[in-house]
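Example record

One chain of 179 residues, shown exactly as stored in the release files.
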Amino acid sequence: MFPKLVIWPELLYSSFNVTRLMETEGELSVQEIHAPNSICFGCGPANKEGLKIRSFPIKNGLEMKFLPSDEHQAFPGMVNGGIIGSLMDCHGNWTAAISIMEENNMNHPPCTVTASYSIKLRRPTPFGTELKITSEVIDLSEDRAKVSMTLSANEKICATGEGLFVAVKEGHPAYHRWN
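Predicted C-alpha cells for this chain:
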C-alpha cells in the first residue's frame, strides 16, 4: 500500500531549512516532503517549539522514532501522557493521509484531520529512551481511514491507540494547513 515516496525538487527547497535536510542525510519524512511549512505542534517541521515528529513508510503503515526532551516528562523519569497523545495523534493522521493518497492515486496527500482517537496507556512510558510508534490502516475509504497505533519503549508496549482521520474539503479551516 505504501510504495517508495516520490520527492519533488520544488518541495525540497521551498522555504525549507536546507541545514535540516543535511542533518537527515537525505532521508526525508512524509512531513518534510509533503508539509515542510506546517506549524502543527506535533508534526510541523516549521514549528520551532514543536515535537517535529518524522514518520516513514513501512509495510501497511508508517513508523516513527522519538527521543523525548526534559520538558516532555510528567514527573522525573516518565513521559507525559499528553505528549504521548500528541505523538500518536499526529502519526496516525499522517498514516491516514498517506494511505488515502496512495489508495486514490493522488500526487499529494489530502489534508486530514482527527475525527476521533483513543489511547490506552498500558504501562508508564520511560523517559531517556527512544520511543517507537508504528501504525497501520485497519479500514480505508475514499476520504477517511481508521488507524491503529502502538507506542513502545525498550521493546515493551507502553500505549496503544486507534483513530479515525478524515480528509477535509475546500472551505474547511484546516484545508490549506499543510501549505
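Notes: The domain at 9-167 is CATH 3.10.129.10 (Thiol Ester Dehydrase; Chain A).
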